[in-house]
Amino acid sequence: MKALELLALAPVMPVIVVHDADGAVELARALVDGGLPVLEVTLRTAAAFDAIRAIAQAVPDAVVGAGTVTDAAQWQRAVDCGARFGVSPGLTPALCQAVRNGPWPFLPGVATASEAMQAAEQGFEALKLFPAEAVGGRALLRAWHGPLPQLRFCPTGGVSPDNAADYLALPNVACVGGSWLTPPALVQARDWDRVRELALQASALRPRRSGDAGVAA
Ligand code: 3PG
């Protein structure tokens, strides 16, 4: 699967911080049942790799990936656990070398036009804008669409139910990422019904169309 095909699967990619690998499968099922199959599990906790492995094995309808990938060793370990895509907050030469020609889509994080151009030079056509709201948000993406019309973005960082639809209306936004689908209090309480409701609301943000590559009409 190419990165743009991945991003076209759902309008929102939940960014998940897992503290308990046991609950990860039920959490993933709630998100998938709510219409969000593309799940980014961040490599920020000790439980992250086990969670990726558990979701990959037990939730076949999920497309689970690793987020916060910052070096080649992490990426290899995530792939070995079953990650089917990767996301990073930025792109170093070593990470670029490790992820560029692999079988799985990878979204490097960018925050400036130069970073976006460098990532495009390396063959990445879909990029994470991070941290989206802090670096200019929708105004920045609108401004980049003129000189960099070929690039598509998954803005993440500060995206919420209040602004997600406005991001998704931009022609260069393929989907958005965010942690609002998995509030720590709900996850701790194992309130999967409420998580599913949040996912349902998010998955309805933009109707998917056959052949939609993530570019709003
Ligand atoms: C992250 O890496 O934590 C993501 O950018 C999530 O940001 P958010 O919590 O603002 O959605």
Question: What are the salient characteristics of this protein?
Answer:
single chain; 217 residues; alpha/beta; TIM Barrel; 4-stranded parallel sheet; 3-stranded parallel sheet; 15% strand; globular; disordered C terminus; binds 3-phosphoglyceric acid
List the helices and strands and how they pair.
Blueprint: H1 3-7, E1 12-16, H2 21-33, E2 38-42, H3 48-58, E3 63-67, H4 72-81, E4 86-87, H5 93-99, E5 106-107, E6 109-110, H6 113-121, E7 126-129, H7 132-135, H8 137-145, E8 152-155, H9 164-168, E9 176-178, H10 184-188, H11 192-203
Parallel strand pairs: 1-2, 1-9, 2-3, 4-5, 6-7, 7-8
Helix pairs in contact: 2-3, 2-11, 3-4
3-phosphoglyceric acid (3PG) is lined by residues 15, 130-131, 156-159, 178-180.
What features would you describe in this structure?
With 217 residues, the protein is α/β, with parallel strands linked by helices. It has a single domain (3-203), classed as TIM Barrel (Alpha-Beta Barrel), CATH 3.20.20.70. It is 41% helix and 15% strand. It contains 11 helices and 9 strands. The strands form 3 sheets. It has a 4-stranded parallel sheet. Strands 6-7-8 form a 3-stranded parallel sheet. α2 (21-33) crosses α3, α2 crosses α11 (192-203) and α3 packs parallel to α4 (72-81). The longest helix has 13 residues, at 21-33. 3-phosphoglyceric acid (3PG) binds next to loops.
